């Protein structure tokens, strides 16, 4: 006899019917620790609860979520609801109708305790933070060699910067080997002497990210002498290494953006500076030209004033010279008498027989002294 072959959907719906029709699984109460919670914009809440043995997917629709207390990863809760199956993924889940918080989960308590301990030791002190270089020449990336995180980081670095050297150190970032792998990669990165280090991984539950909450990892990071930027998980995820790092970003992509300047933005800024510099230089030249023009005007005015003064003095001297011009006296009928080329002002130097020369306004004569008559004054 041939057995009937069922489709995946038929089997899934059969299991769904078994769960939903079981009276023990209707209105069931389950205690556990909240993990990987997401408050969707629709108002629905998606999360898991777990204990040391298992993990149970949960969904609480908007109608119930609006009356439930606000939950966060690590909260201990008691949930009430009905077991069902989400057929598209074939996952069984608890459809929560009510929730009651009991306290913090074990992992979250460990997180809080370690955070307080390291904070008191000064590992989170702002004075310890190192500056992130503006234009790095060498960048070391510590993350898994596979997955979305490394792809997002490398693509972002290439798109924004595409300069310098990028070195990837493949690292185990989850599981029992994660802690030692991260510590080893941090020490290896320091030996490469980069300008900056990116420590990153993609999102996940608190358990998935727990390697970044390990005390040994935090202390190793604190000992690193180079600036470290973290990008662990999603925006809402916060780990211990985020507090120790020199800069915490919300995602691996954000870490790459924080490390790599936008080259196009830099070039645009440089062009703006160039325009401003040219404008300032032209302003300086125009100003100096104006100063020179002012000096030229002052000098020209001063020279012209000096020339006018000297011209006036020359004219005055010319007038004085004209007043002393003997030719004017000669034209009025006066004469000049010379002996041996010397003008005579009186007769005391003359004697009979001397030759004299008399100059008129027009012409001159020569004569010999025959007689000298000297009159008393």
CATH topology-level fold name of the largest domain: Rossmann fold
Question: Biggest sheet, strands in spatial order?
Answer: 1-2-3-5-4
Number of helices: 10
Q: Beta-strand percentage? A: 15-25%
| Average pLDDT for all residues | 88
Q: Helix share of residues?
A: 25-40%
Order of helices and strands: HEEEHEEHEHEHEHEHEHHHEEEE
Q: Write the CATH architecture name of the largest domain.
A: 3-Layer(aba) Sandwich
Net shape: rod-shaped
Q: What keyword list fits this structure?
A:
Rossmann fold, 377 residues, single chain, alpha/beta, five-stranded mixed barrel, 4 domains, 40% helix
Explain what the structure shows.
- By secondary structure, the chain is α/β, with parallel strands linked by helices.
- It has 4 domains: 8-104, OB fold (Dihydrolipoamide Acetyltransferase, E2P) (Beta Barrel); 110-122 and 137-261, Rossmann fold (3-Layer(aba) Sandwich); 272-309; 328-368, no CATH class.
- It contains 10 helices and 14 strands.
- Strands 1-2-3-5-4 form a 5-stranded mixed barrel.
- Helix 5 (178-191) packs parallel to helix 6 (215-223).
- 23% of the residues are buried.
């Amino acid at each position: 006899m041939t057995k009937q072959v069922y489709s995946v959907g038929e089997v899934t719906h059969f299991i769904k019917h078994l769960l939903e029709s079981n009276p023990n699984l209707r209105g069931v109460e389950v205690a556990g620790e909240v993990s990987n919670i997401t408050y969707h914009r629709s108002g629905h809440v998606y999360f898991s609860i777990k204990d040391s043995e298992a993990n149970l997917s949960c969904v609480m629709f908007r109608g119930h979520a609006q009356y439930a207390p606000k939950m966060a990863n690590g909260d201990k809760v008691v949930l009430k609801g009905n077991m069902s199956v989400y057929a598209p993924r074939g996952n069984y889940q608890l459809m929560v109708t009510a929730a009651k918080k009991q306290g913090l989960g074990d992992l979250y308590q460990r997180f809080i305790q370690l955070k307080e301990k390291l904070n008191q030791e000064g590992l989170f002190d702002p004075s310890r933070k190192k500056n992130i270089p503006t234009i790095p020449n060498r960048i070391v990336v510590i993350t898994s060699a596979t997955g979305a995180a490394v792809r997002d980081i490398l693509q972002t670095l290439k798109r924004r910067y595409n300069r310098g050297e990028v070195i990837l150190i493949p690292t185990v970032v989850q599981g029992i080997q994660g802690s030692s792998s991260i510590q080893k990669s941090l020490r290896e990165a320091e030996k490469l002497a980069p300008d900056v280090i990116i420590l990153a991984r993609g999102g996940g539950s608190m358990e998935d990210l727990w390697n970044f909450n390990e005390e040994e990892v935090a202390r190793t990071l604190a000992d690193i002498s180079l600036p470290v930027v973290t990008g662990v998980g999603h925006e809402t995820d916060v780990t211990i290494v985020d507090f120790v790092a020199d800069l915490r970003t919300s995602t691996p992509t954000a870490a790459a953006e924080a490390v790599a300047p936008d080259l196009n933005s830099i070039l645009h800024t440089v062009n703006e500076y160039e325009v401003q510099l040219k404008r300032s230089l032209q302003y300086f030249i125009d100003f100096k030209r104006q100063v020179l023009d002012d000096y030229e005007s002052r000098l020209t005015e001063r020279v012209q004033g000096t020339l006018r003064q000297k011209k006036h003095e020359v004219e005055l001297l010319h007038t004085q010279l004209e007043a002393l011009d003997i030719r004017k006296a000669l034209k009025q009928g006066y004469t000049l008498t010379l002996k041996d080329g010397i003008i005579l002002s009186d007769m005391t130097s003359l004697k009979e027989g001397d030759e004299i020369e008399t100059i008129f306004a027009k012409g001159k004569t020569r004569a010999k002294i025959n007689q000298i008559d000297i009159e008393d004054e």
